[in-house]
Amino acid sequence: MQANVLDAPVLNDGLPSLTEPLTDKINNISQTIQSAERAMVLERIAEQSKQFSAASLGSLADLPRRVNIPSVQGEPLVEVEVEHGWRAIEQEWLVMVTDQELNQITLLTQENMISLVTLSRFEQLALTLIKFKAAKDYDSFNQLSLVLPVSVLEKLGRNHVYSAQANHHETKKSTAQIKDHTARLRVNAVFQAPISIGMIDTAIDLTHPAFKKGQVTSQHFLADEHVAPKAHGTAVAALLIGHNTEQPALLPNAKLFAASVFHSQTAYAQGATLFNLLNGLEWLLANQVSVINMSLAGPPNPILAQVVTQVQNKNITIIAAAGNEGPAAPPLYPAVYQKVITATAVDELRQSYRWSNRGEHIDYAAFGVSVLTARVGNKWGRESGTSIATPIVSAFVACAKHQSPHDFLPVLHS
To answer: What are the structural domain ranges in the chain?
Structure first.
């Protein structure tokens, strides 16, 4: 039998009718797979976020819902209350991207869904980060999840704001006992080795006599137009390396690398954006510190979680304050992340500081109620809070790592 031969025009005309149904099916299957992937990612993220409710947030809830951060020039930075009672820079988001994802996200700017603010490559942290501003109609995770690539949804978070964790003049004592297995540390030992230690905090009043030996190398990560507060960082740094006959430094010969990342929220409160935190951590890694003191606390964030892991992979230990939001408050971060050493505060009777966060993630307790330390303006005063206990734990860990760098393995929460 002789096969029929189709003329070229007939063949060309016939192809679309033969292939269109198949193409439609392939497109439908692809869309179904993408929708299923997106649904799975969203379900996983939703499950993770259930525990982060707006339960009693203590002093965080005392801040106005909207705060204009003063600016020397230009527009003020606007900090607002967002989901779960946390705080963030208004409409600002951060997302970690590959080069391919960067191209996909850039296309969204052409449709006015988002506007790019900065593109940053962090060599030490091994990540590329986009900071963008979402249009008001897209300023939620749910809305952004509809337009962003599925692959970035678990690498997307607001530019959250984290708070310093110290209170002035707190002298009342709590009757609540801390867990029996929690270590109780006091300011009763001085380690003389010339070690390097890092700190993420406010700026430091380097004119204070406590820092007369010039052991501090500081770097500011606020925009030039924002005034950096100094009180909190001055107090924390003085406990680590400050010189005072009544309260000797824990690490009198240490070199302190201090990253200034906090802006003023009110006359008594300071906040640090996640973006500034990342810049501070990048700088500390470049300076090869062995321990990083983070006397701050705030919301969970997928970007912060990955960065903490990156820091730990370089054999650098993070010590974080548990937080001062009270016994009923939800857990605060980065203290809850695995392998982060969590510090809480106790008074001279080894009883828990009454405003400290509680939970099974607490690793160590240290003296942190009415502790003498430096104040701005060449003064000395007493401070309380888990922020004040954290440098004691940081000094302890730095000493242990220096003495046994290969055998150092603290008892940590899982």
So the answer is: 58-161, 164-403
Q: Does domain 164-403 have CATH number 3.30.499.10?
A: no
DSSP state at residue 2:
P
Q: What is the separation, in whole angstroms, between the first and last Cα of the chain?
A: 76
pLDDT of amino acid 185: 41
Check: CATH 3.30.70 for 58-161? yes
pTM of the model: 0.83
Provide φ and ψ at 399, rounded to 5°.
-65, -45
Contact between residue 93 and residue 163 where contact means Cβ atoms under 8 Å apart:
no
Report for 44-58, 176-190, 238-252, 292-306: range of highest mean pLDDT: 292-306
Residue type, 31: Q
Q: How confident is the model at residue 187 (pLDDT cuts 50, 70, 90)?
A: very low
What Cα–Cα distance (Å) separates residue 47 from each residue in 43, 52, 337?
Answer: 6, 10, 17
Q: In what order do the strands lie in the sheet with 364-367?
A: 183-185, 364-367, 341-346, 317-321, 291-294, 196-201, 255-260, 216-220
**CA proximity to 297, closest of 267, 331, 323, 278:** 323
- Residue 40: what pLDDT? 64
Cα–Cα distance measured from residue 30 to residue 377, given in angstroms and rounded to the nearest whole number: 64
